[in-house]
Amino acid sequence: AESVVHVLADFLGTDSGMQVIIFVRAIVEQYPDLRPPLLNKLVESIDSVQSNQVLCVCLWILGEYTESADSITEAFDTIVEQAGEPPFIIQTKDKEAEKEAAEAEAPKMVTKNVVLSDGTYATQTVYSEAKAPVASDTTASLRRMLISGDVFLGETMAASLTKLCLRAGDLPEIEPTKVKSMTGTAVLAMCGVVKMAEVTVAAQRSSLADCQERITLCCRALLDPSAQAHLKKIFLKEGRERFAEFLKIIKERELKEAAKEADKEQEVTTQADDLIHFRQLKSMAVSGGDLDLDDGADLARATGYDSAGALSSELSHVYQLSGFADPVYAEALVTVHDYDIVLEILVMNRTPNTLANLTVELATMGDMKIVERPQSHTIGPLDQMTIRASIKVSSTETGHIFGTIVYDDASTREKCYVNLNDIHMDIMDYIRPAHCTDEAFRSMWAEFEWENKVAISTSITSLLEFLNHIVSSTNMSCLTPFDGKSEKGSFLAANLYARSVFGEDALVNVSVEKKDDNDGKLAGYIRIRSKTQGIALSLGDRITSVQRGLPEQTSKQ
Length: 557
Hints:
Layout: H1 2-9, H2 17-30, H3 35-45, H4 52-65, H5 69-83, H6 92-105, E1 108-115, E2 121-128, H7 141-147, H8 151-170, H9 176-199, H10 205-223, H11 225-266, H12 288-303, H13 310-315, E3 318-320, E4 328-337, E5 340-349, E6 355-365, E7 368-372, E8 377-379, E9 384-393, E10 399-409, E11 415-419, E12 423-425, E13 431-433, H14 438-447, E14 450-455, H15 463-474, E15 477-478, E16 491-500, E17 505-514, E18 522-530, H16 533-546, H17 551-556
Antiparallel strand pairs: 1-2, 3-4, 4-5, 5-9, 6-8, 6-10, 7-9, 10-11, 10-12, 13-16, 14-18, 15-16, 16-17, 17-18
């Protein structure tokens, strides 16, 4: 295992560095014997890391698990060397040099008049570009990222330096003068990070306030003995304990999923002594009824169709289109097959007259297109007929189907119209629960531009109960691991993820708080992000309609 991890550590500077460092972090926690060589490898590889997130995890590992005297001093000196001298901002001379280099590299345009072969004049414009110089930037990756304005990376570096200094103070092998020197260097580096956060335009105000508060806490832990007595345990022990609990939760979840998969594999679908019917080998004398029964059994096995819940599921998708007092009664059974919507419209003639040229004229609103329009039919007195229509769907969004029944009364020779009720197509027919990594979720969250923010207004008083209600009502999966048995605080934040049948991603962040000054009611926001506008708006409407309370509570009210 040690050799494998060492080989993987060589890929920290590649595109797959995030997956590698997450794996290394788990190995360092679960296998204490492998920590010394892995930490030495991280110290050697820190200069080759080019990703901000990967570098943050590297700094956290070095600050959390470096315990021996030699490794503490080596890790501290490497981090300080890579960060360079504060302040971590671009100096005026550097800015002027960059400006002059940019002007030199800019293309130069030369315009002149020339005489063509036919004796006419023309204007000729020539662009001349300087030869691109060979990149000779020798700045360390950590310093380059700090100068670019990565406030979170600076906070992570400050926390790691604080942990190393606190551990160095507990080791008798390290001289007190060396500890004081390390403390002074760490405090100077922290001040440089705060200065960088103040002058960086890209840093948000919330990031600046968080940076000042967090680094102030680190400085107090190093300089104030009374504060150090309270904060030392938090810095050196509780962070590692929380991470160990996180790994334990993930492992338990994987075991549960593996047990479910094993149970599924052990389910017996067909007994060993069941007869196998070869339909092609049956003689022609076999009645057609037997063949139909065999066909139905084959379809049931192939599709996993269960007739027990078929009737209830079909009834939930039956829509009444006209009233009972109308001369023509119509209802539709809506079946959604991913990209297609099939309408089976039952039309009943409630009059004693024959209805000729009866047509169901349909129209759609939304990203839906009618592929197969219903044909005209003639219905006898008190007769009924089923008319089929097919609609193509190309994106995930809420849509409406509306229409009119037009027919000619054979006795009165009049043309009659019956307006039909709208059929509301729910977005939940296209949403499927899915899973993705935290890194992929954060990447998509930063990339997607459409956002819908819904304020929480509900009668539910339990945080976990509200979260479970939102998850079940929106047909999404919760990516945030939590203990579903009890609530441990007054605040809950979770990420939900789903994917549509069209391959579109839907991201939801739930941030809810139980406020004591609001009679224990829940407050907060649910943010929805997607690449298309339809999913964001439709999911927002769905959440707004279902968040009021549980179905039992809503029915009682």
